[in-house]
Amino acid sequence: MKIALGCDHGGLEHKNAIKEHLESRGFEVCDCGIYEQVSVDYPEIALKVAENVAGGQSELGILVCGTGIGMSLAANKVKGIRAACCSEHFSAKYTRLHNNSNILCLGGRVIGVGTALELVDLFVDTQFEGGRHQRRVDMITDIENKY
Ligand code: RB5
Question: Does the domain at residues 2-146 carry the CATH identifier 3.40.1400.10?
Answer without folding.
Answer: yes
